[in-house]
């Protein structure tokens, strides 16, 4: 008890000295430390919010894992946990009058809705959602036509909406409703909570060489690494 009383007395003497000049110095020091801690808390909170927003935006356009075929068809069986959600889709590179663009016939309507900055997010057959970068480059607006050329097949889609992923992450520029003739077959995989994507990737690499594995985190790892290092520095 005496030890705690001494520590409290010492703390009081340091933070509230008897002389007026010493009190001013102590007050400035304590205020500076408090402001520094508050600033660090605010900045870390903003960074955590930025990471969550970017991660949600990327997963609105891409599944956790995307498998494409090297031979043109995906294997009938793959070593995937039963807890995974798998959805057949198409993904790859398609030609447009404005250059080559990545596309995918998979999207998450619930997650894409907050990212829509123009038009509508509930994707309809025959329509397409495009990224803000493609819309700016091609000067496209909702309601405009967008010809997309697949191998041996050219389709004209109506731009239904424009989406923006925070941080302008590397995501597909074109989201389509359903599979199309000439598209590259793929399999969208979403992990259940607690699933380990690296374990699935290793299992796929050991069991088959017929598929190309595209983990979503591979495209975002560099950006998240920068944010993580900035947080550690602070």
Beta-strand proportion: 25-35%
Instruction: Give the termini separation.
Output: 37 Å
Count of discrete domains? 2
Secondary-structure element sequence?
Answer: HHEEEHEEHEEEEHEH
**What's the total number of strands?**
10
Assembly context of the chains: single chain
- Biggest β-sheet, characterized? 10 strands, mixed
Task: Detail the poorly predicted runs.
Answer: none
Number of helices: 6
User: What overall geometry do the principal axes of the alpha carbons give?
Assistant: elongated
**What percentage of residues falls in helices of 4 or more residues?**
40-55%
Q: What is the overall pLDDT average?
A: 80
Structural class: alpha+beta
Radius of gyration: 26 Å
Task: Explain what you see.
This protein is an alpha+beta fold and 234 residues long. The protein has helices at 2-15, 20-61, 109-112, 132-138, 197-207, 216-233; strands at residues 65-69, 85-96, 99-104, 116-119, 127-131, 145-150, 153-163, 174-176, 185-190, 211-215. The relative contact order is 0.20. The chain is elongated and about 85 Å long. Strands 1, 2, 3, 4, 5, 6, 7, 8, 9 and 10 form a ten-stranded mixed β-sheet that branches.
């Amino acid at each position: 008890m005496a030890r705690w009383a001494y520590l409290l007395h010492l703390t009081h003497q340091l933070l509230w000295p008897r002389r007026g000049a010493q009190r001013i110095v102590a007050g400035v020091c304590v205020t500076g430390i408090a402001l520094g801690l508050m600033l660090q808390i605010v900045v870390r909170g903003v960074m955590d919010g930025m990471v969550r927003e970017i991660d949600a935006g990327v997963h609105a356009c891409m599944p956790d894992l995307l498998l494409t075929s090297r031979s043109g068809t995906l294997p009938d069986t793959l070593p995937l946990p039963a807890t995974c959600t798998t959805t057949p889709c198409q993904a790859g590179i398609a030609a447009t009058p404005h250059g080559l663009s990545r596309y995918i016939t998979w999207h998450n309507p619930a997650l894409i809705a907050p990212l829509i900055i123009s038009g509508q997010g509930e994707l309809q057959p025959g329509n397409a959602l495009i990224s803000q970068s493609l819309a700016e480059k091609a000067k496209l607006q909702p309601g405009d036509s967008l010809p997309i050329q697949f191998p041996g097949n050219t389709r004209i889609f109506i731009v239904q909406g424009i989406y923006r992923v925070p941080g302008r992450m590397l995501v597909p520029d074109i989201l389509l409703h359903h599979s199309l003739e000439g598209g590259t077959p793929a399999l969208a995989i979403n992990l259940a909570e607690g699933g380990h994507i690296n374990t699935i990737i290793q299992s796929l690499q050991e069991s088959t060489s017929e598929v190309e594995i595209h983990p979503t985190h591979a495209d975002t790892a560099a950006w998240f690494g920068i944010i993580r290092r900035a947080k550690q520095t602070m």
